[in-house]
Fold this protein.
Amino acid sequence: MIYYQDNQFVNGHEIAFATLAEAQADRSAVVEMAAASLRNQITAGTSPAEMSSWPIKLDEANAGGGPMLTLEAGYRGITEAALVTLVLEKAQQLSTLEAQIAGVSGMHRDTIDAMTTIEEVVDYDMRADWPAV
């Protein structure tokens, strides 16, 4: 049976599930663990304080600039316009990755939920289609 451990899918021991719902819940939890791990890899090394500033920076970048971006650009030694471009590019990259992770996670969970036997659920290979991070 496939598990997710140390940021990768691994083969593990078999578990006997008593019900289809139990098997589906277990396998869906593995999918969610993989999705969470990918999200954590993307934001690794970024402090919560920095992440909390992202919505403000994005709002200001979408408006063409603002007080926070003006200050940051000044300290960084670049123009505010250059920083606006960097923020918008980074936001696009992050939103694309999040859409991929959420979409693939949802696809696998939907597939698992549609299965009608424990055997199908246990044999399902959820390793496909995840984005590289």
